[in-house]
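Case study 2.
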Amino acid sequence: MNTVLNRAIERRFAEYRARHFGWQLADGVGRITLDRPERKNPLTFDSYAELRDLFRALAYAEDVKAIVFTGEGENFCSGGDVHEIIGPLVEMRMPELLEFTRMTGDLVLAMRRAPQPVIAAIDGVCAGAGAMIALAADFRIGTPRARTAYLFARVGLAGCDMGACTLLPRLIGQGRATELLYTGRAMTADEGLAWGFFNRLVEPAALLDEAHALAATLAAGPTFAHGMTKTMLNQEWSMTIEQAIEAEAQAQAICMQTRDFERAYRAFVARERPRFEGD
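Prediction:
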């Protein structure tokens, strides 16, 4: 779209300065970095809210084609900050608690609804809300020392947090998800790879390079069509096979009207590599 609104949004993301985490944008790839390494990159009320708002706004950002989400240092994210979140929650009443739990769930929804593919680059500790952010991503690249824990039960809470009981069984299977959510134990990197949680494992020194290489490949692809794929992957969970096939027929017909589809055809005829532009 070439509207005043979208031009303003593009300028905003090119110049965006995050307050509660790191943000970089280069060649269509945005990188979010949780940057409190001294405490294993925990989340706060403010960082939750800003992340939610960022992903909501990314739905309109034509200059951002893919996202890499990572943590500073040797850890991804240790979850909610014990002192800045857990402590205050103990003192809150139900209306405030519900406002908070809905906000955290809204972050997952915003990540799933953003059209850009999100790649979580996971090293070390990936726990609680951090594990849910990883789960909400479209791809997960880990290291052999990654440890992923849905440890809600270990702090006296149910495993049904931020969509865990919906997303985790679909990714690794009902039985495995049940074990992790009841016990709160850490899933090893090897388990995560074997169970389909991780797309692949790489050495820590190569983690960001691998994540950015994947993001660059996706950003250079037919990004409108990628967004359609993400939408259908989400929506078809609740469809019958008949509904899914019809929805995909409509989605593909829409993609066939894009210039990228025509570019791919003309490149094939000319025996050239297509150069997609996302329109």
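The chain has a mean pLDDT of 92.
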